[in-house]
Amino acid sequence: MACRRGCCCGVVNEDNARFLMLAVLIVLYLLCGAAVFSALEQPKELQANEQWAQRFERFTQKHNLNRTELETFLRHYEEANNAGIRVDTLRPRWDFTGAFYFVGTVVSTIGFGMTTPTTVSGKVFLIFYGLIGCASTILFFNLFLERIITVLAFVLKSCHDLQRRRPGVMPHDGPRGAPPPGPRNRDRDSLAGWKPSVYYVMLILCVAAVVISCCASAMYSAVEGWGYLDSLYFCFVAFSTIGFGDMVSSQRVTYDGNQTAYRLGNFLFILMGVCCIYSLFNVISIVIKQTLNWLLRKLDIFCCRGCCHCCPAGIAKRLHPRRNAVMPSGTGHGHFRARRTVSIETDALNESETDGGRRMSGEMISMRDFLAANKVNLDLMQKQLSEAATNGIPRPSVSNQNRQNGFSGGVGALGIMNNRLAETSVDR
């Protein structure tokens, strides 16, 4: 069906619009960051270059040295510095403990840059080692976030159960008139319906990251002799896996106090900090994606402003006014109507498999889901017509069963969920 206003629904969909908007915002973000850092750091750089030029000139004149020979000597020192040789004695980089610290920075994608392989065999081995190690570590970080969500869901469910069992609030065995425990009520006891809000998880991870960073900064300030703000700066650079390499912990040969305890604490702080910050980045990305969806709706970037019958945006508005709320219908004691905030789904973090890995929670319907749903409805209609021609009585379709059981039809993931709920209720 062609659009009356000549819109370009088939050309510009929500995924492309979101991608373009995000690309533009990232470019603007980079330009603003470059302007700020250039204004803050360039004067310091020019001052340092001027001071070095004056010191170099005074040194050559004082000791009557050839400028070219001195520059050659300094280049040799820079090569030695890249190999790990410093004026102050540092711990060996390629003994077992130093190598373990190095591979930890590799698989965690921190990459401080102060230790790098120099042999050809070491560089080749690093390619294959980092490929498997980085992928495994990223999987570990994702599983860590899933465990966090599961723990929060368990806590929310436990608090709700305790509140239900309080005297005078609700009987211990459930509300009056509630259906007896059975297969249909098993889902209430699971954690699937207790997944916390995206913003709640983001708040928890923010608090955890701040606490870990503050504790780690106190340790680095006391042991490494850094300032507290410098220690906080190192924690963010290391935990976010940026890893500039200007400040690196646990590089001295000896430390005052228990050296083994400090290196173990350093390892644990980096591990916990990277897990929290990486998980926080994933959750913030979901919030950014929801913000982009809100901006797209506000800017009416989809053609015809959702009023056209052929536009996916208009169909989505009519079919799913609220995709993030599941409201079962019914008037019995065991039914209720409730609204939930946006819940964080594990599949939403790693991209939904049922939607081809393209949609997350809170997104609008895509053209692909719309066409797939129309195809299913067409198949059901053809089947009904065929049975009516042969038997004279059409069989009830899945959509009719959904209406009889109080579940409205849907498109995409919500439609699949409604169909499953309807089939379950019919079987039971």
UniProtKB/TrEMBL annotation:
Segments passing through the bilayer: 19-40, 96-114, 126-156, 198-220, 226-245, 266-288
Any one of the GO CC terms: monoatomic ion channel complex
Record's compositionally biased regions (Polar residues): 397-406
Cellular localization per UniProt: Cell membrane
A GO biological process held by the record: stabilization of membrane potential
Superkingdom to which the source organism belongs: Eukaryota
UniProt xrefs under SUPFAM superfamilies: Voltage-gated potassium channels
Keyword Nuclease belongs to the record: no
Keywords per UniProt: Cell membrane, Ion channel, Ion transport, Membrane, Metal-binding, Potassium, Potassium channel, Potassium transport, Transmembrane, Transmembrane helix, Transport, Voltage-gated channel
Reactions catalysed, as given in the entry: K(+)(in) = K(+)(out)
Stretches assigned to the Potassium channel domain: 91-148, 202-289
Region (Disordered): 166-187, 390-411
Signal peptide: none
Molecular function GO terms recorded: metal ion binding; outward rectifier potassium channel activity; potassium ion leak channel activity
Membrane topology reported for the UniProt record: Multi-pass membrane protein
Family: Belongs to the two pore domain potassium channel (TC 1.A.1.8) family.
Protein name: Potassium channel subfamily K member 13a
Gene from which this protein is expressed: kcnk13a
